[in-house]
Design a protein that fits this description.
The structure holds two protein chains of two kinds. Helix content of chain A is about 30%, strand content about 25%. Chain A is α/β, with parallel strands linked by helices. Chain A has a single domain, classed as Rossmann fold (3-Layer(aba) Sandwich), CATH 3.40.50.620. In chain A, a hairpin with a 5-residue loop joins strand 8 and strand 9. Chain A is globular and about 65 Å long. Chain B is an alpha/beta fold. Chain B has two domains: about 180 residues, HUPs (Rossmann fold), CATH 3.40.50.620; about 120 residues, Rossmann fold, CATH 3.40.50.1220. Chain B is built from eight helices and 18 strands. In chain B, the strands form four sheets. In chain B, strands 7-11-6-1-4-5-12 form a seven-stranded parallel sheet, with helices on both faces. In chain B, strands 15-14-16-17-18 form a five-stranded parallel sheet. A three-stranded antiparallel sheet of chain B has the order 8-9-10, with helices on one face. Chain B is elongated. Chain B starts with a strand and ends with a helix. Classes of the chains: A alpha/beta, B alpha/beta. At the A-B interface, helix 3, helix 4, strand 7, strand 8 and strand 9 of A face helix 4, strand 7, strand 9, strand 10 and strand 13 of B. Strand 12 of chain A pairs antiparallel with strand 10 of chain B. The complex binds flavin-adenine dinucleotide. Flavin-adenine dinucleotide (FAD) sits at the interface of chains B and A. Flavin-adenine dinucleotide sits at the interface of chains B and A.
Chain lengths: ~260, ~325
């Protein structure tokens, strides 16, 4: 089976405090720790497991800049066979539709039976997989948390829905699935694994190679534009307990007693 | 102003809370405009849902069809593409159904798409200025959306709370005869209910809930000791279940359990809307987080900036020595 997995390099929100820069045009990107989008790791792991069962290849692709190459290498160290970087100044300012259009062009250069994305990335929009599927006219399912290959044409999949219940369906291939965390346990990638793929060639494709035009991608084609980042005026929020550890604990114990938090 | 439509999510003959929330959001976009709610399903449940929805909407379009008995996003997309005007404004909840339907629908309608909206800032000719978040709720942004060729919008559940609504008494129009071909390449089979675990966190009065800040499986024990000292039950956020450190039945949130404790102590949890969406009945929320800017401090009653790994054993000791 030929599998394409779309991944993204994102600031690691578990590792960073996100601050907005002084003019509100971006977040403060100095000293940010980046990693592969959490959901994408599960998608790549799933692709590798499917390939190991039924044969084929796993290709990872990302739309990004030179630095995005590191996430492709990381996913190749996990076991993906190939990486493709889609990079061009003309892609800057793309909205979700633009990113999906670029990925569609890249998908068209291969012959993929299955395309996976993470369920969502750092902007929380959860949109690329569904858009890509519709552009390619392929069936789609979001938030997939189990995959069973039935035959060349069919898969049985589970979608995670509200309350942790699972919606089981049969889907025809070729198709696009967005992957939810918890579907598997992504393997650990050590520094040695990364070194092994350090010199593997990763092709870079721009707008011209992909025949993506300005009406589809980039800021000119974007109907959705981020205007700024801002800090909202919020309510008072929590009453913050101050002082040293002991002081905080004393205050908390009093509060817990009053609210029925201690038995 | 283009026509406004919403999709009504329902289950077991009951409308979801988002039905009222989307009515309010639609009013913010087209104040005073008539809004049409689209309801799909079959039989008596569908009729009951249409009745409930008519409290919030001036017009209900009812679609009764065996192929719509389960809300399969692919079938519903086909229906909507046949139905919606090319410049329509279509509102959906940002839940597991909206995420499944929205992006592909926007592509097929050649409309703009914006997801997980938490506020509407301005409505202009052919343009909306909306508010959303990025980076797991740690940054807010204003987004401009060109709606001149129509738009599909998904709204975060709970961000438009309705008060004193629900007296519209709208008209229910049966549009079932207009349903065209609904063949799908993704066929629904069944729902597998979530497994019940060893403890029922929904029954607990006091929850000690741990998130990614617990860092290591070995530290889960430290939280269990604290819970025992407090007479509480251990719950958690999703990453702890993904890592298989606790059972799925311990997960609080939209894709886990909905809990109604008296006291909810969140340790090393950032406060994502999917997590907070599982906490109901306004408990007393204590948040312990090492990041003073963690979003959870906006919704907690009491906040403590500390390393939870140092904090938990000290609190346990204090309680045990009392
Ligand atoms: C469709 C869908 C459904 C979802 N359903 C759920 C759900 O039901 N429940 C759920 O929880 N999530 C759910 N999620 C995931 C959700 O979006 C978040 O990713 C998740 O809630 C984050 O968990 P967290 O707060 O534990 O981790 P993070 O967001 O990584 O936060 C960890 C926090 O711990 C703090 N921290 C780190 N170390 C320490 C320390 N030593 N001491 C103190 N604090 C520390 C950090 O400052 C940070 O604030 C869902 C996501 C999707 C897309």
């Amino acid at each position: 089976m030929e599998i394409l997995v779309c991944v993204k390099r994102v600031p690691d929100t578990a590792e960073n405090e996100i601050e907005i820069n002084s003019d509100g045009t971006d977040i403060d990107r100095d000293d940010l720790v980046y990693s592969v989008n959490e959901w994408d790791n599960y998608a790549v792991e799933e692709a590798i497991q499917i390939r190991d069962k039924v044969g084929g290849t796993v290709t990872v692709v990302t739309v990004g800049d030179d630095e995005s190459e590191e996430v492709l290498r990381r996913e190749m160290a996990m076991g993906a066979d190939k990486g493709i970087l889609l990079s061009d100044g003309a892609f800057e300012g793309s909205d979700g539709f633009g990113i999906a259009s670029i990925l569609k062009a890249a998908a068209g250069k291969g012959n993929y039976d299955l395309i996976l994305t993470g369920a969502q990335a750092d902007d929380g929009a959860a949109q690329i997989g569904g858009m890509l599927a519709a552009m390619l006219d392929r069936p789609y399912a979001s938030l997939v948390n189990s995959i069973e290959v039935v035959d060349d044409k069919t898969m049985k999949i589970g979608r995670e829905i509200e309350g942790g219940n699972q919606e089981m369906s049969e889907i025809q291939m070729p198709c696009v699935l967005s992957i939810q965390t918890g579907i598997n346990e992504p393997r650990y990638v050590g520094i040695r694994g990364i070194r092994k793929v350090a010199s593997v060639d990763i092709p870079v494709h721009g707008a011209a190679d992909l025949a993506v035009d300005a009406s589809a991608a980039g800021s000119a084609g974007a109907k959705v534009k981020r205007l700024d980042y801002f800090v909202p005026e919020l309510g008072e929020g929590a009453e913050m307990l101050e002082g040293g550890m002991e002081e905080k604990i004393d205050k908390l114990v009093e509060l817990l007693k009053a609210k029925g938090g201690l038995k | 102003m283009a026509q406004l439509f919403t999709y009504i999510v329902h289950k077991g003959g009951l409308v979801d809370d988002t039905a009222a929330e989307l009515a309010l959001a639609a009013q913010k976009i087209g104040s005073g405009a008539s809004v049409t709610a689209i309801v799909t399903g079959t039989g008596a449940d569908l009729d009951a849902v249409c009745q409930q929805a008519s409290k919030f909407y001036s017009q209900i379009w009812k679609f009764d069809h065996a192929d719509l008995a389960y809300p399969n996003a692919e079938a519903i997309r086909k229906l909507l593409v046949q139905l919606l005007p090319s410049d329509g404004i279509f509102l959906l909840p940002h839940d597991t159904f909206g995420m499944d339907l929205g992006p592909g629908l926007a592509v097929k309608l050649k409309s703009a798409y914006t997801a997980d909206i938490i506020g509407i800032d301005a409505v202009e000719e052919g343009n909306l200025k909306i508010v959303r978040q990025e980076f797991a709720g740690m940054a807010y942004t204003h987004v401009s959306v060109d709606i001149s060729d129509g738009v599909v919008l998904t709204f975060r559940p709970g961000s438009f709370q309705s008060e004193g609504q629900g007296a519209v008494n709208g008209q229910i129009v049966d549009k079932s005869s207009e349903i065209g071909e609904l063949n799908v390449n993704r066929r629904f089979i069944e729902i597998v209910e979530a497994e019940t675990g060893d403890v029922d966190i929904t029954k607990a009065d006091v929850l000690v809930s741990i998130g990614r800040g617990i860092e290591d499986q070995d530290n889960v024990e430290v939280a269990e000791e604290l819970a025992e000292a407090m007479g509480a039950v251990v719950a958690c956020s999703r990453p702890i279940v993904d890592a298989k450190w606790l059972e799925k039945s311990r997960q609080v949130g939209t894709s886990g359990q909905t809990v109604k404790p008296k006291v909810y102590m969140a340790l090393g949890i950032s406060g994502s809307f999917q997590h907070m969406g599982g906490i109901k009945g306004s408990p007393f929320i204590v948040a312990v987080n090492k990041n003073a800017k963690a979003p959870i401090f906006q919704v907690a009653d009491v906040g403590i900036v500390e390393d939870m790994l140092e904090f938990m054993p000290e609190l346990t000791e204090k309680i045990e020595s009392a």
